[in-house]
Amino acid sequence: MNILFDLRMLSLLIGLVAVFQCFPVLLALGLGEDPTPLVQSILCSGTTCLVGVLASRRANTTMTPRDGFLVTSLGWFLVAFFGGLPYVLHGGLDLPSAFFEAASGFTTTGSTTMTDIEIWPQSILLWRSCTHWLGGMGMVLMMIAILPLLGAGGTQLMKAEVPGPTKDRMTPRLISTARALWGVYTLITLVGVGGFVLFGMSLLDAVNHSFAAIATGGFSTKNLSMAYFSPAAQWWAILIMFLGGANFLIHYRLLVHRDWKALTYEEFIGYVIIICGFTTYCVLVLLRSENWSLEETIRHSLFQVVSIMTTTGFVSTDWEKWPAVLQLLMGLLMVIGGMSGSTGGGIKVVRVILLLKTIPAVTTRLLQPYQVAISKMDRHPISREILENGVATFILSLGYILFGGLLLHAMDMDLLSAMGASLTAWANVGPGFNTVGAMDNFAHVPNLGKIILASMMIVGRLEIFTILLLFSHKFWRT
Q: Can you tell me the distance from the alpha carbon of 438 to that of 82, in angstroms, rounded to the nearest whole number?
């Protein structure tokens, strides 16, 4: 491994945190708020970055796959630590809670330890939303886009950070790919801001909620989340969340190449079918259990299905008061998550489709043992490697959720809350069940539990194998 170059990359990641904290500082100065916590955080992050860059100035730019996984894994923990400093320096959160809050932001989980969001300075809330926006497309991917010095080694970083079993390239050059992704991401963000302003939000609220919606994060500037805003704003949020949960390869091909065939990808069709199917069922159940108009029923049903499936976590109503069967469906949507190559969490729609496609193949082999049964997706054969990855990820993820839930239960959390917190942290959703539900927060979770959940968020964001590799003795062999 190239330890010196790894140190440089980690230092530059910390430096990016300092750079983007400058924007909330400008807002604080403009609104007359105290910028001291953010300035102190910038000095701390900037100094650390400078020391690391100077110490690694003689590093060469050779990067192996092991370097990529190491930088990506450690980098996300480091940006969560340094990104949480403004919350500590402001005096509102202790260090474990701040680490939790920043990890929740960068991983676009959206869980919070803030008991009253609306009393926090607007500049701190903007930084909180910025962590969503930066983490949505990926801090490492941004570094690839703006630092040509990475060269071919950036491929190793991209493989480690971009979630999902496929890493399709949109352009021949890695840097161009990263810039194209960030360009599409920024464009949709600006469209989101414009729509939210049009539908009644202030500019600051529009920026915060657009950052959270496209990143499928869920941090809001209001204690009631999206329930505070107009029905029109909620409909607009549905659209932006839907786009955030879709593969950005599709956005790129539609916007740049006008390639409408991208809408025929099996994963995208499955994504739409799941949303429509679950929404229809919710509407049918809620028409009998809630005293809402048809528009309200459809809006709340579609909003919560899209919010949970894309792992955004916004709420338009307290869905924990819905019938138990719908809460069960919400838990299932958390597991499924968004599309590969999106900002959403979960195991990804593509893996669900891959697992379902193995059923006919297994059945065929049972009936005709000597026939070669090949599963296909988008008319291409599915390799054994991809199938094995899908099955292994699914099994390990379920075990990981169960293990995390049992640890939290051992800390005196009731079993439903503990399992809900573990699931929502791994899936990067935000709300869980019972005491960590849609209208609750994580402030009451023990400090050790907050650190465990923050770590689970990062593992869920990067997907379990990226972190698991670090615990393999083969990984550290030179």
A: 28
Whole-angstrom distance, CA of residue 310 vs CA of residue 336: 9
Residue 203: how many other CB atoms lie within 10 Å? 10
Query: Could you give the CA distance from residue 222 to residue 230 in angstroms, rounded to a whole number?
Result: 13
Going by their DSSP bridges, the two strands 376-377 and 380-381 should be labelled as antiparallel
pLDDT of residue 157: 54
**Core vs surface per residue 343-375: b (16+ CB within 10 A) or e:** bbbbbbbbbbbbeebeeebeeeeeeeeeeeeeb
CA 16 to chain centre: 19
Residue 429: predicted pLDDT: 94
Q: What is the mean pLDDT of each run of 10 residues along the chain (478 residues)?
A: 86 93 97 96 96 88 78 91 96 95 95 95 97 84 58 51 51 67 92 97 97 94 95 98 93 89 92 97 95 96 97 94 94 94 90 86 76 75 79 89 96 95 94 91 96 95 81 72
Identify the pLDDT of residue 453: 97
Task: Identify which of 70, 97, 10 has the alpha carbon closest to the alpha carbon of residue 45.
Answer: 10
d(CA 108, CA 50): 28
* Helix 231-244 / helix 203-214 crossing angle, nearest 10 deg: 40
The answer to whether 81 and 102 are in contact (CB under 8 A) is yes
